[in-house]
Amino acid sequence: MSTELLLLVDGSSYLYRAFHAMPDLRNPKGEPTGAIYGMINMLRRLRTELPTTHIACVFDAKGPTFRDELYPQYKANRSAMPEDLVAQIEPIHAMVKALGWPVLMVSGVEADDVIGTLAKRAAAADWTVLISTGDKDLAQLVDERISLINTMTEERLDVNGVKSKFGVFPERIVDYLTIMGDTVDNVPGVPKAGPKTAAKWLEEFGSFDELFEVLTLMQTKKVTRFPVILVGKEFWTGMVKFEQMIEFGVIDENDLQTIHFAETAKEVWGIIQEHYQLS
Q1: Most trustworthy range by pLDDT among 67-76, 77-86, 173-182, 211-220
Q2: Are 23 and 32 in contact (CB under 8 A)?
Q3: What is the separation of C-alpha 25 from the centre of its chain, rounded to a whole number of angstroms?
Q4: Which helix (H) or strand (E) segment is 57 a member of?
């Protein structure tokens, strides 16, 4: 059995959490620095607590993804990113790299998809994988090799932890999310079906497909929304093919060993530190 540990950080989740958790900090030039400080603190703490060699911080790339093609109204109700956070995105990317973390972004997909692909690939190679995130969508990845950790709440989810929190095991998280939808991202679900209802239905019927078949036969009013939900189900299962990771230059040919911590780039870090007055 391999002793390798891969630590994957949901960078997109981290930067939002850092921005909202920190006060309105600014350097002498008036530039916002709160999210930068927050990211530095969270990554340093994580690195101290989990000093593994194989790590990566994954961010969403700019531009639309395949989900926008599947459902054009995806995230249509979201407010624009705050300007003070926009101003800190590029400095955060540079800072994370300077601290020695590989930064991964793949066009056309989201950070979740890249994380899922790498996690499954590493698990298949018998590695242990720990994903640092607050995103419930990633609970679908949890198995005997993959677990989640939320550094804000100190919560750690293994297979039984997912069942305890959501009422379903990881292999049913996609069905669970499909039934509920996601109001934050404007993804439709079964009307008025919340977490308890979704878990109850899955316990009773076994899967979303079996539930859909039963409701179709019953000709309930809820069925009228299901064609949209069936499109929505594809949102929760996006994965980048490993070959695409190679094509995009994320990793070298079939080699997870290339995802590793590097020495802090002191010169680059010094420039960032001086500009933003970081400690």
Answers
A1: 77-86
A2: no
A3: 26
A4: strand 54-58
